[in-house]
Design brief:
Elements lengths: L10 H4 L1 E7 L6 E8 L4 E11 L2 E14 L4 E5 L5 E6 L2 E4 L14 E4 L11
Antiparallel strand pairs: 1-2, 1-8, 2-3, 3-4, 4-5, 5-6, 6-7, 7-8
């Protein structure tokens, strides 16, 4: 887990860009890039690939909170509620109740190397 010196999760330790291709019920996959900033704000860019309308891009920004007790990052959004379990240097997308998915690997966002630009959605 991304913990501070006192053992607690912190926005500064979680700050970074996370990327993965997640399952999608009505498309071939969802290319997902989430950037968490040290001031508890985020930017989310996702692409729904292979929909009936072709690839569909989606972007938003907002604030996030950290549920230290459960080890979760929670995006505070009017459009899309999402929470992620912090596991090592990665984030795992949870279900609507904040529970881990059965197939963690399919829902994992890997932290990008801080010296490299985040993968771009195409």
């Amino acid at each position: 887990m991304a913990e501070s010196a006192n053992g607690a999760l912190s926005a500064m330790n979680l700050a970074g860009t996370y990327h993965g291709t997640l399952p999608c019920a009505d498309c071939s996959g969802r290319d997902y890039t989430l950037t968490l900033k040290g001031d508890s704000t985020y930017e989310l860019h996702s692409r729904y690939m292979g929909t009936k309308e072709g690839d569909v891009d989606f972007s938003e920004s907002g604030n996030y909170t950290i549920d230290v007790t459960r080890g979760l990052v929670v995006l505070n959004s009017e459009k899309e509620s999402a929470s992620f379990i912090v596991e090592g240097s990665n984030l795992i997308m949870c279900d609507a109740e904040g529970n881990a998915p059965q197939d963690k690997a399919a829902y994992t966002l890997m932290r990008s190397n801080d010296n490299e630009p985040a993968p771009e959605s195409k």
